[in-house]
Amino acid sequence: xxxxxxxxxxxLGYGEKPVLADVNFTIRPGQxxxxxxxxGCGKSTLLKGAVGLLKPLAGTxxxxxxxxxxxxxxxxxxVRSRVGLLFQGGALLNSMTVAENVALPLQLHSKLPAGAxxxxxxxxxxxxxxxxxxxxxxxxxxxxxxxxxxxARAMILDPDILFCDEPSAGLxxxxxxxxxxxxxxxxxxxxxxxxVVTHELPSIETIADRMIMVADGNVVxxxxxDEARHSTLTSVQSFLxxxxxxxxxxxxxxxxxxxxxxxxxx
Length: 266
Known about the structure:
This protein is an alpha/beta fold. It folds into 2 domains: 5-82 and 160-231, Rossmann fold; 92-158, no CATH class. It is 37% helix and 23% strand. The chain contains 10 helices and 10 strands. It has a 6-stranded mixed β-sheet with strand order 6-7-8-3-9-10, with helices on both faces. A 4-stranded antiparallel β-sheet has the order 2-1-4-5, with helices on one face. Helix 6 (173-190) links the parallel strand 7 (161-165) and strand 8.
């Protein structure tokens, strides 16, 4: 398959009001594509549209070659069984053990015997270095461990493409960097295709083959990180340099404002 995900002239929003318009891009096998932009720009809305959780107001979304807008619930379930989704908060169920959480997609989409399911869960937990957490509850795990368990669950069906929504959100820098390396390992060692939503610059600089930036309701940039650094677009440079876009701090980076005596969060 030449394209795992295609968006053609797509508008996405809630009710009749578009949050994003004229979205056009293609993700091909083996790529690690980062969707980025400032908070509230529509990154997560874009991800919801990509996996069929949000129907487009206009345009066409093709996931694994299927037009999502014309699929019934059975068709959507079939397509979703071939993709992995790492939710922002992990979305683990505390009423289940770690092993039961990881096995959940197998229970929904597979008719494998119990022994084969157990072996797969063991393999995926080993992949993220957490085979020892088998019988633990998610509440017993650290934030980084919960993210890795959620990643094991997202990978349990060996998806064609893995979608990650703010994977490093809420993690300390060391743990976030370890998760970035794990995502890179999936791409490099297993040839997994990834679409990662994040606004974290260290993650973008570490993992991105390609950066798609959303601003003002549109895709304003699509290219490599090096191309982004040389972009003449103010929105791209402001984002990369973390500059304020408001009159009380325009043209000053966060560190520059702090050094000048301003509040970092102002």
